[in-house]
Design brief:
- Keywords: DNA damage, DNA recombination, DNA repair, Metal-binding, Zinc, Zinc-finger.
- The protein is of the alpha/beta class and 195 residues long.
- It has two domains: 49 residues, Orthogonal Bundle (Helicase, Ruva Protein, domain 3), CATH 1.10.8; 99 residues, Dna Topoisomerase Vi A Subunit, Chain: A, domain 2, CATH 3.40.1360.
- It has eight helices and six strands; from the N terminus they run H-H-H-E-E-E-H-E-H-H-E-H-E-H.
- Strands 4-3-5-6 form a four-stranded parallel β-sheet.
- Helix 1 crosses helix 2.
- The longest helix is centred in the first third of the chain and has 17 residues.
- The model has no long low-confidence stretch (mean pLDDT 90).
Length: 195
């Protein structure tokens, strides 16, 4: 599919992070196979989402309201979990064991490399001292690890906040040691617990 319309669609869809060339082709096929009315409904739903959903003014979690349900809940503990995306908040909520507040901060390392002003980082630094502890729950990717190091440094130097944690790294349940990467295996050994 190398016609002009497909290439325009492909160029636009490439702006969505994480879409592979194959996924873009599947979306293009889906659009071709659907009736125009069905595509219009999808477009309308996207526009309504864009209009009605915003980021919480405190923590950047996606919400219909100015303050999300976590920030407006005064019964939550005075601890903060910093994550990369709103979907990460949802994942922690599924566990039903974390009862603190959240802060969504994405692309920290990328913004630092590109020297872009990071308003989310500035906001995090300004609220840090309101909490007893902050746990950085970023991905274990290269960028995620460097982001955690950078955030820890900024929290200590700029906000003078010392009580910073990161999630433990370990062997996943059901995984065989032979298939675990070396970094995870090493961290599992270092962070072993007494039985």
């Amino acid at each position: 599919m190398n016609n002009e319309e497909y290439l325009k669609l492909e160029k636009k869809l490439k702006e969505i992070p994480g879409l592979s060339k194959r996924q873009i082709q599947k979306i293009a096929d889906f659009i071709i196979d659907k009736k125009t009315e069905e595509i219009n409904e999808i477009v309308q739903t996207i526009l309504e989402y864009k209009t009605n959903i915003k980021k919480c003014i405190n923590c950047n979690y996606v919400s219909k309201d100015e303050l999300c349900k976590f920030c407006s809940d005064s019964s939550r503990e005075n601890i903060l979990l910093v994550v990369e995306k709103s979907v990460d908040v949802d994942k922690f909520e599924e566990l039903n064991s974390y009862k603190g507040k959240y802060f969504v901060i994405d692309d920290v390392w990328k913004k630092q490399k590109e020297k872009v002003q990071d308003k989310a980082l500035e906001k995090l630094l300004s609220i840090a001292n309101k909490y007893k502890e902050i746990t950085l729950a970023l991905s274990s990717s290269f960028d995620g690890q460097f982001s955690m190091i950078y955030l820890q440094k900024m929290l200590k130097e700029k906000a003078k906040f010392e009580n910073v944690y990161q999630l433990a790294i370990g062997i996943p349940i059901g995984a065989s040691v032979e298939y675990v990467d070396n970094v995870t295996l090493k961290q599992s050994l270092i962070k072993k617990v007494k039985m």
